[in-house]
Predict the 3D structure of the following.
Amino acid sequence: MEAAGRIRVGVELVLIHQSISRGIRISKLYSDIFRQTGFPNGRIGPGFADYVRSLSSVLHSHHLAEDELAFPAFRQSLPEAPYERLAAEHRLIQPLIEEARRGIERALVSPTLQEPLAVLDRALRELEGIWKPHIETEEVHFSAERIDGVMAPVEQADFMRRLGRHIQEHSGPDYLVVPFTLFNLPAEARAILSETMPPAVIQELVPGPWKEKWQPMSPFLLV
């Protein structure tokens, strides 16, 4: 799935952050609810697991793309950004992503949800504590205005295509992570982010053959 590159890099960064931030909040909210009440029916548990798995995959691939593509691309043109600190925070977040995933996988097979969802909740809370100041720093140093000042529109389009390919290679499955990313955004923001994706994905795959696969996540999405 190659990005179309029709919006600015700094705008896309903020939208991805917004989607992930909501994913963390909703995962925390429902992990606490389900820890107390259990899953209300046989479809909700797998849907919530897909939601948390998608969060884990999107967050991991986002940080990998920053470490391997974005940060090297901007080190010379935007040297004031705290690259080493941001990369170190990525390394702190990665084991929390893995812990969250272990928690939800254990919840699917555990006779009781209290212990595995407590693991998930703890990982998400620690993750969020790092995530919020982390993205605030990124959005200051890699704002749309700053990137516009060092990267021409044609360069941004090429960069976003490469970024899209990299993310696709390191995340998945597409039929979960694409709807997760889009439907954790309100409609206006979703329409903007959709411009970075091939029309066939937005117009055909997401509402068509992929829908049956991502539909169990819908109680947690903005659909």
The chain has ten helices and no strands. The longest helix spans residues 44-74.
